[in-house]
Amino acid sequence: MAPVQRMSTTMLKTLRDDPADAETASHKLLVRAGYVRRTSAGVWTWLPMGKKVLENVSRVVREEMDAIGGQEVLLPALLPKEPYETSGRWEEYGDLLFRLKDRKGAEYLLGPTHEEIFTLTVKDQCTSYKDLPVMLYQIQTKYRDEARPRSGVLRGREFQMKDSYSFDTTDEGLAESYRLHREAYTRIFERLGLDYRVVSAVSGAMGGSASEEFLAPAAAGEDTFVDCPACDYAANTEAVTAVVAPADAAEHGPVEELDTPDTPTIESLAEHLGVPASATLKNLLVKIDGEITAIGVPGDREVDLGKLGEHLAPAVVELVTAEDFAGRPDLVRGYVGPQGLKLRYLADPRVAPGTAWVTGANKPDTHARNVVCGRDFEVDQYLDVVVVEQGDPCPRCGAGLEIGRAIEIGHIFQLGRKYADAFGLDVLGPQGKPVRVTMGSYGIGVSRAVAALAEQTHDASGLCWPREVAPADVHVVAAGKALQTELALELAEKLGAAGVRVLVDDRAGVSPGVKFTDAELIGVPTILVVGRGAASGVVELKDRRTGEREELTVAEAVERLTARV
Ligand code: ATP
Ligand code: MG
């Protein structure tokens, strides 16, 4: 038994025009179809239709989390500052954190994610190894003061997240909790009807080891990922590792200085010498926590500053300025080379031992040839920080990688003991000695998943929901006449009684054209039109996705639609 939802009494106002500031399809369509309403920048109201979709996503997430033994809890969003000071994130989060004070001046934050509070909860509730493993989750409102909340509910400053945390006493236990989550996520995204990839990710500020992201390919996505067309390798571009061919230092002649006036750029140098840019070594100078450091990458590659920041976090990375050169005559702008350089030297893995390069000679207007890594200079640390390019070799099989854009819909981490160490989370082990707990943390963007689904499934006429998340199973459209409305309502009641979720457009004084356009925009998977044929008991069934239409008798339509329940 499902109550029939009548459009004549539903608070649902569709709009003809896109909101002025909307850039993504999900933003435009969710607003136009009356699912969400902007309250302030990055803060959204879920209207009746939107709330249904959000609830459907939550239900699927909840069912699958329960199925792997997750226990649902609800933590506050308003959190005291102290635990976040203990973990260091009160500082690390910087401007992303919403901070506030109570009337007594005590400091609080609005939770961006809850590792700290879950750790404290388990510390309080679990004392013995027998109390573990435990998996806790919540579907809750999160707050992050995002820099550019422009894409509707895709990136909110207030948003719904499912976050879960696993607590184990052994590494094997953590691996198992992680595996269970990975499988639950696979089932969740499949049931939601999302097209997704699981990719390896850098864990960044979270610390810890294994980490994978669930990405939904979509042009509106803010993440880039690589996909191998030949094997199952897929990774966030930030996590791709370079493939390096071994080289032999003995092949190369001695270092040779070259007079290269007016060649401060790689292009001008490559042209002057008649060598490819890939044979030159470019040395970018940055400041890492204030210390000037050089990073060597092949001349044809760009350094990804975001990736560099991720790798070196929490150190602060800045570009050098003209003042930084002032006190350093040894640093010759545009002609820096790693040989004899008195700086820490980081390099791309392509700058492998034995490879020879054309690079700066640390003298004005001069470059050097046959500068060999491991012979003429040493690399202090290798870092994968160049921008990945279409066609770069797959680290697993060597085929040319493809680059795509995607929306991050989920993220799973093996955190390890980082938070347990910070908060001293131990339980009494089988031998009576305390054992440090190891943790996993797992997130799904519940409200973001609604937007991701809209991005992936919409068409030119509007939204087009997969059945599991749709706000209704059938949208019955009464074309206009009183008799048609009567039959439509009768049909809707019959379907509702059989458990079919029905939205019925029984609005008086709205033209059939507007009703059809609205039905397409709203995106319920099946549209049932009660129109001209109604007098003779014939209705039209339309598949929203394929556009296929079929005329059926009322009895046939009821049978067809109830068979699916
Ligand atoms: P992003 O890189 O997109 O900012 P994140 O990596 O910071 O996301 P996590 O901390 O991994 O996000 O959060 C878990 C999940 O919560 C993400 O995978 C994403 O689906 C969702 N999420 C994160 N930030 C937002 C946001 N501002 N609006 C909506 N959903 C979000
Ligand atoms: Mg993430």
TrEMBL record:
GO terms for cellular component: cytosol. One of its GO terms (molecular function) is ATP binding. InterPro entries: aa-tRNA-synt_IIb, aa-tRNA-synth_II, aa-tRNA-synth_II/BPL/LPL, Anticodon-bd, Anticodon-bd_dom_sf, Pro-tRNA-ligase_IIa, Pro-tRNA-synth_IIa_bac-type, Pro-tRNA-Synthase_IIa_type1. It is found in: Cytoplasm. The keyword Thylakoid does not apply. Consists of three domains: the N-terminal catalytic domain, the editing domain and the C-terminal anticodon-binding domain. HAMAP family: Pro_tRNA_synth_type1 (MF_01569). This is Proline--tRNA ligase. It comes from Streptomyces albireticuli. The gene is proS.
